[in-house]
Design goal:
By secondary structure, the protein is of the alpha+beta class. It contains 16 helices and 18 strands. A hairpin with a 4-residue loop joins β5 and β6.
Length: 493
Amino acid sequence: MTLKEELTEIVGADNVIDDPGTLEEYSKDSSFVKPLKPMCVVKIKGDDDPDKTHEEIEAVVKWANDTLTPLIPVSSAPPRFRGDTIPNVGGAVVVDMSQMNRIIHVDYKERVALVEPGVTFDQLTPALAKEGLRPFMPLMPRSSKSVVGSYMEKEPILQPRHHWESQDPVLNTMQILGSGDMIKMGSADMYTLQEQWAQKKAQKWFNMTQFNTIKVAQGSQGTIGITCWLSMKCAMMPEIHELLLVPSEDPEALIDLAYKVLRYRWGEELFILNDYTLASIMAENQEDINALRGYLPPWTLLIGVAGFVYYPEERVKAQQADIEELAGNCGLRIGEWVPDVRGDDILKALYEPSNGVPYKLRNKGGCEELFFVSTLDKVEGFIGDIYSLASSHRYPNTDLGVYIQPMIQGCCCHCEFDFPFDPEDPKESERVRKIVDEGSELLANKGALFTRPYGKWSDVAYRHMNAQELTALKKTKHIFDPNNIMNPGKLCF
């Protein structure tokens, strides 16, 4: 019996796909990672019973261990950007869970939702709104982006006040480890989901012991196991929601203000964008982006203020007055708008995922990212370094996007540089590739922490890592994936 025939017995003939067009689609993405076709693609549909939805995945992983076949987990639909779903070795099977798209459970009282890996933000946002809740959003996810994929890859959320530790907003998970073992983490580990719901219990508490595979799997790019479902914290839907915009000629004063606002735990959303990124979010095409950014300030701090069930108007007015006072102390002027852009329009864009072209691709059709974790006080230096590097390669700084997102109550921040380019122009593509390669090395030498290293960044990240830490990582990988079947070749594995 061939490998394909064995897979067909597990998931059915209609769910094992190996036609040339499909294999070509899964062999590449928008990144510079070298294309490589998988052997086939397996579509996982799961089960209507949430306590059995893992069984197909479990069977596929056990089969992969028996046959030593590499598996590449995928939960988001295209376009993809970072090369983490492209096989690094031949003969791999892509495990596509985009059809596992059930919103299994929503609990308003506990502010918890439990979803399968194929659920997108485009699907989850209106479903939660009916219950008076909303998801904690990353910045402008594309409509095909998996919620589970985003959270398990630790994409930063817009609300640092609600970000208490690195795992947030993830609560509980069911995972199939590379060994083929099923494990449930957190309070979900007790009894079945149906039994817990009958007892009015929610899958809310992080973990019952010090052992926590969620943190091991987060950011692992599918090299540890596959997440079958995930429960997450949700935010209350506000009665009143306004976005304050603070313009500035440079980021230094905005960072100072951000520190002060974060110290008092004021605001909901809080992040900094340069003019190019803000224009890309608000405009639909290249012409409109170029026109709009000419009217925008070079840098803008965006602060959301919201009122909920009790005294919403009073809460919004009080916070706005306090933030205005802090802004004045920093020599800044706060308002609800900057020229041609209103806070209400930005809020609408933030909470309605990109149904058209993702904002990073709207200008030139391609975009390469460079992001890392640091502290806010070092960000201005990193910006200067990248601007200088781009200029040395004759890449226009006016086309360079910057996104600064405080995390974990402002203890650290996500710092991101986006380099749009025309993928049909080989010279421009090569220029951007060189900038990103050199930039990752430059920033790592200056203290940037690549907690989510993709492609060539992994070489930079692990070269700067302590040898004992690297050894511990490889031992951990061997414990959870002894046959190295889960996305081999990624990270340091």
